[in-house]
Every structure is written in structure tokens, then in C-alpha cells.
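tool=predict chain=A
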Amino acid sequence: MLPTFVIGLREGLEAALIVGIIAAFLRQQGRRDLLRWVWLGVGAAVLLCVAVGVTLEAVSSNLPQRQQEGLETVVGVLAVGMVTYMVVWMRQHSRELKSQLEGLAAAAIGAGEATGGGGATSGEGVDGDGDEGARSRAGRAMVFMAFLAVLREGFETVVFLLAAFNESGSSVDAGIGALAGILLAVLLGYGIYRGGVRLNLSKFFRATGIVLVLVAAGLVVTALHTAHEAGWLNVGQSSTVDLTWLVQPGSVQSALLTGMLGIQDHPVLIEVIGWLAYLVPIGLYVAWPPNRKLARRTLIRVTSGAAAVGALAAVVLVLVAPAAPATASISAQRTGSEVHDGLATDVYTSSRTGTGTGTASADRPTRLTYAQVAALNGGRLPLGVRAQDTNTSVGVQYTDKTVVTLWVEPRTGRIIDKRSTETVLATLTGTQVGTVPLDNPVTSTTSTLQAATVDSAVAAARHDLDSIDRRSALLSGAWILGSIAAVALLILLGLLAKRPAAPIS
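tool=predict ok
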């Protein structure tokens, strides 16, 4: 709810300020007759933005899963681009926004009157028609100004809210937050228009800009995740750190951290890099006081220090990272997954069948009486076999079938448990109906690993998992620090290449 509230408040207040400044200027100029044109432009822009939002949502909901993920990625990228442009532009122009809008409004009124005056050649009636034409042209200009102002903010709001809705766990909460933010923005805009509310717009937009940068950084993570789900991005998918202790699913803390900051419980490498690569530079730019300038020498010191520290820290993390544990090669077929002895494992199965090759069939008689056959077959002869004398013998051929089941921890490749089942099947030969298999197996034996061996394998797998997680986290940190060092080095080279102009003697 909080991210969509901030989006609605920030975007709604920008639109309300623009419309309010235009309306206040017209009131000061005694041109209240043009206000209805302003409201007409506002209404048309709002209706168009709502139609665009409903259309995008309908198109997204009717797409297959992978195409939905792709559309969410596109919407997320557009939202990040729009919010970045918005906060940067407002930081640069919030001070002179009022004077610029008043100038545009005055120019629109002046252009309409000048055109209307040019059409009056002689006669009072013609002058009246010219005044009416001037008002009409000025009205159309006001419609156009208000329409474009609200349309721009409305499009940004629609795209940004769609991306935030996709990221939010509850559409109802997100919708309530957005509506509350927009209503508060309208009330503030009306208060500013009437003169009863005074805001330091520069500080307001800088503070809300910081919040929106945090939200946009979360959208970067979401866009990278949906891009992977859509099959567009398959690099950097190695796990980094386990943050389930911080981001507990279903908790208020998780909703704030994931909804506001985009922090996931199991972030992958590309998501961490994208989050930091967006948040650090854009956040510093928006949060930095506009009147405080950094000296070139200070920038050189800061960037050179960041490059050196980042590179050194990256090297240290690589050196202290544990070696990757050796993984076993499994030559069986994966048949499923299950939790085995407290660990999530993959189940592999292999089978081998041979005639008279198993230990269970060794030294078994090759001929049996029909009475012995009936005893092996559950007290009856196989279907179709008849015996006039139960003491008459018949030929028997044995087939051994061995099925081996392995439980393997997937990330380490360690075999946690093993079960081997050897089954002996018998087939009668030389009967009056030819070759006939017995219905029941002759024997079936199962062997498993001892409990102590399984416990030892589970402990070793847990140790390897801890090593893998530490190695992944340290190498991810090294990659991130190395990237920061590389960026700082590029900035440093740019500062050194841009030498200050020599003084004129």
C-alpha cells in the first residue's frame, strides 16, 4: 500500500500543481471564463489515462504465462524510465515551474487575442466576433495545456502503478494506497490553489523523489525477475544470500521491504547488481542538496578512493571464498523430488535386468516339479499350464531385475541415501503351451544404507551447502564491489581527462 500511496501522492500532486498554477493565473488575470476549458482538458486526459490502464490490464490478463511475464517486464522498464526522468526533471525545474507555466498561459492568451484582433477589420460587430474568436482560441490553448499536463502525469501514473500492482502481493491494498494518495494530492493541490496550504516544493519533491527511487529500485529487481521468467534473461541467476531471516514471507516487515525496496528473500546475482546499480547513483543524485556543489578535487579523491577500496575488497573476498565442493556424477534418471531426512533431495532410479546374472538366482535348480512350481506361484500353476503328474519336472529360467534408488542433494550432488532391490523372476520352459512366466517373483531382497551412514551423509551435505552459500555470497560481493570500482575508475578517468581551463595571463 505504501509504494502506491507515494506514487499516487507524488504524481497526483504534480498534476494538481500544474493545473492549479494555470487556474490561479487565470483567476488573477480576470479570465475565469477560461477555467471551464481547463477542467475540460483535465477530464479528457483522466478518461484517456483510465482507458489506457484498463486496456493494458485486460491485455496482460488474457496473455499466456510467459507472455504475461514479458509484458510485465516491459511495463516495469517503462515505469523505471519514467520515474527516473520525472524525479530528475522535477529536481532541476521545481523552482521555476510556476513562472514557466504562467509564461505559457500568458502566451496562450496573448496568441488567442492577437489572432482575434487581427481578424477584426472594421465595425463593432466584427470586433465582437473577433473577441469571441480570441476567447475560443485561448480556450482551446488552455484545454491543450491542461490536457497535456495531466496526460503526461497520468500516463506515468498508470505505467508506474501497473508495475507496482504486479509487484504487490495484494491488489486491493495497492489500489487503496493509490486512491488515497491521489485524493490527498487533489486536496493539497486545491489548498495550494486557494492559498491556504504552503509547501516547500523543492524539499517536498526531493523527499518524495528519494522514496520513489527506492520504489523504482524494487521495480528494477522485479523487471529482472520477470525477464528471467519470460526467458529473456538467463545470466546472473546464481544465488547470493539467504535473507529469509529478514524478509519473512507473510509478515508486515516482508511487505515493506519487498514492496518498498524490492528486497527478496533469495535474491540472485543479477537482481542484486541491478538494485545497487540503480539505487546508488540515482539516489545520491536526488538526495544531494541542489545548492551544494562538489569541488573537482573532492570528486577525484572520492572516486579514486572508491575505485581502490572496491578493487581491494573484491580481491580479498575472492581470496577468502571457500573452494567449491566436489560434486558426484549421477548416471541414473531423475524421477522426482522429496524431502529425505530433513533435506530437499532429487530422486534418481536405475534398473538392470539379466538372465541368471544376479546373486539371488545363483545355484538355483534349472528344473522344478509342477508341485514346486505351484508353491512358488502362490499355490497354483500359471494360467494354461496343466500337469497330469505333479511330480513331473519342467524347465525353469531365471531373470534378475535390480532397481537402485538414490536420494541426492541437488546443489552438492551428494548421495544422501541408497536403496537396492533385487527381484528374481522365473519363466517355465517346455510346457504344453510353451514358455510361461510365473505370476509371482521367486524372491525379492532389499538392502539399504545404515542409519549412521545416512546421518553422516546428511551432515556432510549440510556442510557443503553452507560452503556453497558462503562462496556464492562472497563472490557476489566481490562482483558487485568490482563493478563499483570499475564505475568509479571510469568516472575518475573522465574527471582527469576534463582538465580545468588554464588562466589567461
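The two ends are 62 Å apart (CA to CA). DSSP finds twelve helices and seven strands in the chain.
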